[in-house]
Amino acid sequence: MVDLESVQPVKAPLEIVDESWARALAVVAHPDDLEFGAAAAVARWRGQGKHVVYCMVTSGEAGIDGMHPTECKFVREAEQIESARIVGVDAVDFLGLPDGILEYGVPLRRAICAEVRKHQPEIVITNNIKNTWGGGALNQADHIAVGRATLDAVRDAGNRWVFPEQTESGLRPWGGVRQVWAAGSPDAQCAVDTTDTFDLGVESLRAHQAYIDGLGWEHFDAAEFLDGNSRQAGARLGVSHATAFEVFRIGLGD
Ligand SMILES: [Zn+2]
């Protein structure tokens, strides 16, 4: 007799992500979003000499219950800058949109489009756009709004007639984004080996100490948390640790 509760669903193997690129832009809603998994991959790419820029759509100012947003904004921006530095990223843009109440729509597409035109990436990284993280665990509204707007903004960026005020003020249209990668998606098909940079990913998450303390997760262990997720992805890629992404290809050709 089979104990059904002990039977884990077998997930398909993951493919290796395309690493034949030189410039990436990571667009996420909040400080800390990249550190819950993607940062170890960023550390690997920085180690390869690739150019990576972070864009925080909000400053996460509504993220700590016991701290007023006016103060929290500066604490969280400082933590994000430090966590970016740990993995070798030295440019972090903060767009200053309101934390917790982002809306998918044209204003958000416009803001992200300007970032794409400014930084001219080939790969854009964002967060899970699905309603859940898998297993019914609910995703957060800002993540979904930013992820969906990012998918649209990478196309907007290439069209000079969309948001023309940006091109008239000096930004050039940019149609060079080949893929958008969503970290933390339950529908990931690809992954990158992060075995050698796992520790840097842990350190970058620990840089968000005020945020983690504010969550009240008394026994939260950054290494243990990241180890669990990245080992699962690693097993599907045939390595020790990995970061998985849902890959969206732009255009019809590849
Ligand atoms: Zn978040």
Q: How would you describe the overall organization of this protein?
A:
The structure is a single chain. With 254 residues, this protein is of the alpha/beta class. It has an eight-stranded mixed beta sheet with strand order 1-7-8-6-5-2-3-4, sandwiched between helices. Helix 2 packs antiparallel against helix 6, helix 3 packs across helix 4 and helix 6 runs antiparallel to helix 8. The mean pLDDT is 94. Bound molecules: zinc ion. The site of zinc ion has 5 residues, from loops.
Task: Summarize it.
With 254 residues, the protein is α/β, with parallel strands linked by helices.
Give the SSE string.
EEHEHEHEHHEEHHHE
The chain-level structural class is alpha/beta
Shape call:
globular
- How much helicity do the residues have? 25-40%
Radius of gyration: 18 Å
Bound small molecules, by name, code or SMILES, are: zinc ion
- Give the uncertain stretches in residue-range form: none
Termini separation: 46 Å
Arithmetic mean of pLDDT: 94
The biggest sheet, with number of strands, parallel, antiparallel or mixed sense and barrel status, is:
8 strands, mixed
Regarding quaternary structure, what we see is single chain
* Beta-strand proportion: 15-25%
How many helical elements? 8
How many individual β-strands?
A: 8
Biggest sheet, spatial arrangement of strands: 1-7-8-6-5-2-3-4
